[in-house]
Design brief:
- This protein has 1 helix and 5 strands, in the order E-E-E-E-E-H.
- The protein is of the alpha+beta class and about 70 residues long.
- Strands 1-2-5 form a 3-stranded antiparallel β-sheet. A two-stranded antiparallel ribbon has the order 3-4.
- The relative contact order is 0.23.
C-alpha cells in the first residue's frame, strides 16, 4: 500500500480524514497534511479534489472504495 494512504481514513460518505501527519506528492505538487484535516468529495485543496484523487490512488492499488 502507498505509505501516505496509511495516514488517512475513508468514511462511508466518501470523506477522507487525515489521522497522522503526512507529506506526499499530490496531483498538484508536494502536500503536507495534519491530523484532523478532512477532504469531502467535490471540495478542493490546493486546486485538487483530494477525496477523488485519494479514491483513485486506492483504486490503483486494487482496493475498492464503497460509494
Amino acid at each position: 500500500m502507498a505509505e501516505f494512504l496509511k495516514a488517512f481514513r475513508r468514511e462511508a460518505s466518501g470523506t477522507w480524514i487525515c489521522v497522522a501527519p503526512t507529506t506526499f506528492e499530490g496531483p498538484n505538487g508536494r502536500m503536507q497534511v495534519t491530523p484532523g484535516t478532512a477532504f469531502e468529495p467535490g471540495s478542493t485543496f490546493m486546486g485538487a479534489d483530494l477525496a477523488k484523487w485519494l479514491d483513485e490512488q486506492l483504486a490503483k492499488l486494487g482496493r475498492r472504495t464503497s460509494h
